[in-house]
């Protein structure tokens, strides 16, 4: 462990640290290759430490280790994890189970998967207390449940408590998990991407809620996130990881505004901004896998500052100020010029639209989900559909693709009215509007290689002879910047960004006129997200592709979209040029949405 980290540990412990991680190393059981190596940090009472980095950097491995857990095929080979004075790694299985929930709690990314769908909320809340405190009286348990729900601003009446998880919104489910995490007053709470998939209003509310509860309860918090704006808004300090190593640690505002490691600087440049229309900087290459890390500095193969010493010596963390330590051989005095600013979003000319939606309505039974939706999209234009969770954004995208039958209104493609259901549309129309799902892993056949998945589109959908598909397959893989080796892999052997590129490549092989993208960047880390955004931007200009981009991320909207449609409870409340709408929103709801996004990024 470096001297800088020792100083940081000692400093924070003197101020009342409740979490002390030293020399944490996790290895693959079979090969002995390390997943994370020599990770050390502390977290004080009421302090939030954000853990950031690309997918594969080891964030989730570290988070799991704080609960004394390792995924199958891995083992904690070295180090200590002290929480409230107890080394969790030295406990028996029975004692460790007793610590989970009572001393260390976790808020997972997907609340719907964490809550039991067959049990009412009250039963699940009561069970948590009764398991850890079986002697607690019924009245005391009920009072603590009411107090926990009030802490997270949820109703505490019996009518609410009798609901099942599926009867409340996703945001309410997430708050139930936060209430459960803090209910036993644990010393440490681990947050695993709790804001992924949430709109700006929900994210701002959740972050304020977490900070408030954390401070009042005095818990230490480890917040795992890929979103640097969320890290800046929620954390006191930030630990940046790459290749299973700690590369930068310090005050959150200092690290994310003036990063001193080239990797951190590139992450900051890849982050979209609500206030600037910028080209997102993609970090070339991929993070190294365990056992395949280069000698010396793990980041050197992707770093523009790499020199001879980087290839031979692994850099150690060193202090560069009272609030910042960095592992780099070079003195990065300041960031580079930063990302390139783009021209303002194009104003609409008198271009004949390729897609026109008029007075569209979609409902389920007696419930109306979308009403009076009218807009059009021109060739080469990106139209963003923005709104809160549950506003009807995904329903609108699915209706355009014919995956959600509309009950009224029309959808026209090049002036020709389409049948509401895709199965009844003519083959050219089905090919002309392609839908890219949020979760590419769920939309790609897990038993087929990328080559087989893409080749099927040409042979089955477009009726192209198998003997003439090779050139087109090579061309589309190049267009989406996929390595040729990816062609022979199964979806599970690809990263999240690679799978999303395969899904886009499959759509492009249909030679579409319109591409509907449903939250395609929401679960991706900033570098991979930047690559997908820049890919979509290039497609708009190179093949005049019209894009309907369903999203909750105003930063991505600012970077990519030409125009924006804002949905609130199934109706359009505002539409216009993206720069004008974000810069000076007119509708009350849009002002709330933009204000919340600015609050998170401030």
UniProtKB/TrEMBL annotation:
A GO term, aspect molecular function: ATP hydrolysis activity
PROSITE patterns registered for this protein in UniProt: ABC_TRANSPORTER_1, ABC_TRANSPORTER_2
GO biological process assignments: peptide transport; transmembrane transport
Highest taxon of the lineage: Bacteria
Alphabetical list of InterPro entries matching this protein: AAA+_ATPase, ABC_transp_ATP-bind, ABC_transporter-like_ATP-bd, ABC_transporter-like_CS, Oligopep_ABC_C, P-loop_NTPase
Signal peptide, first to last residue: none
Keyword Transmembrane: no
Keyword Nucleotide-binding: yes
Pfam families: ABC_tran, oligo_HPY
Keywords on record: ATP-binding, Nucleotide-binding, Transport
SUPFAM superfamilies membership: P-loop containing nucleoside triphosphate hydrolases
Domain ABC transporter residue range list: 21-268, 355-594
Family indicated by similarity: Belongs to the ABC transporter superfamily.
Name by which UniProt lists this protein: ABC transporter ATP-binding protein
Organism: Kribbella speibonae
């Amino acid at each position: 462990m470096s001297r800088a980290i020792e100083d940081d540990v000692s400093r924070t412990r003197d101020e009342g640290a409740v979490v002390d991680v030293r020399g944490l190393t996790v290895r693959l059981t079979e090969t002995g290759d390390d997943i994370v190596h020599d990770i050390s940090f502390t977290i004080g009472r009421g302090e939030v430490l954000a853990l950031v980095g690309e997918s594969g950097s080891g964030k989730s491995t570290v988070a799991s280790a704080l609960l004394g857990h390792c995924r199958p095929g891995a083992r904690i080979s070295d180090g200590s994890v002290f929480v409230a004075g107890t080394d969790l790694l030295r406990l028996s299985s029975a004692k460790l189970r007793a610590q989970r929930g009572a001393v260390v709690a976790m808020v997972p990314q997907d609340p719907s998967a964490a809550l039991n769908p067959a049990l009412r909320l009250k039963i699940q809340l009561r069970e948590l207390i009764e398991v850890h405190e079986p002697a607690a009286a019924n009245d005391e348990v009920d009072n603590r449940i009411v107090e926990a729900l009030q802490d997270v601003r949820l109703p505490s009446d019996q009518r609410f408590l009798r609901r099942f998880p599926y009867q409340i919104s996703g945001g309410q489910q997430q708050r139930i998990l936060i209430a459960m995490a803090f209910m036993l007053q644990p010393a440490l709470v681990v947050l695993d991407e709790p804001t992924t998939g949430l709109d700006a209003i929900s994210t701002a509310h959740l972050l304020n809620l977490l900070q408030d509860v954390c401070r009042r309860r005095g818990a230490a918090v480890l917040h795992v996130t890929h979103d640097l704006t969320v890290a800046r808004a929620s954390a006191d300090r930030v630990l940046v990881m790459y290749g299973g190593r700690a590369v930068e640690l310090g005050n959150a505002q200092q690290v994310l505004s003036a990063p001193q490691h080239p990797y951190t600087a590139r992450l900051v440049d890849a982050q979209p901004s609500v206030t600037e229309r910028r080209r997102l900087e993609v970090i070339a290459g991929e993070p190294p896998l365990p056992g395949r890390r280069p000698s010396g500095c793990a980041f050197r193969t992707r770093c523009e500052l790499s020199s001879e010493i980087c290839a031979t010596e692994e850099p150690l963390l060193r202090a560069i100020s009272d609030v910042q330590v960095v592992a780099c051989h070079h003195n990065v005095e300041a960031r580079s010029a930063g990302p390139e600013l783009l021209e303002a979003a194009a104003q609409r000319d008198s271009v004949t639209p390729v897609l026109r939606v008029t007075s569209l309505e979609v409902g389920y039974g007696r419930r109306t989900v979308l009403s009076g939706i009218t807009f059009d999209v021109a060739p080469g234009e990106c139209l963003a559909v923005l709104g809160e969770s549950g506003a009807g954004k995904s329903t609108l995208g699915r209706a355009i693709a014919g995956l959600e039958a509309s009950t009224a209104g029309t959808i026209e493609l090049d002036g020709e009215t389409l049948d509401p259901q895709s199965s009844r549309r003519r083959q050219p129309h089905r090919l002309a509007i392609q839908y890219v799902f949020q979760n590419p892993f769920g939309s790609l056949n897990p038993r087929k290689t990328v080559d087989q998945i893409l080749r099927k589109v040409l042979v089955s959908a477009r009726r192209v002879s198998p003997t003439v598909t090779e050139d087109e397959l090579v061309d589309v893989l190049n267009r989406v910047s996929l390595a040729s080796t990816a062609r022979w892999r199964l979806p599970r052997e690809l990263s999240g960004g690679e799978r999303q590129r395969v899904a886009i490549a499959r759509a492009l092989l249909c030679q579409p006129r319109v591409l509907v993208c449903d939250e395609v960047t929401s679960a991706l880390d900033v570098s991979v997200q930047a690559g997908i955004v820049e890919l979509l931007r290039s497609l708009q200009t190179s093949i005049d592709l019209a894009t309907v981009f369903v999203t909750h991320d105003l930063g991505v909207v600012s970077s990519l979209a030409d125009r924006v449609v804002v949905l609130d409870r199934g109706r359009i409340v505002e539409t216009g040029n993206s720069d004008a709408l974000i810069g000076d929103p007119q509708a009350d709801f849009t002002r709330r949405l933009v204000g919340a996004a600015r609050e998170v990024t401030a």
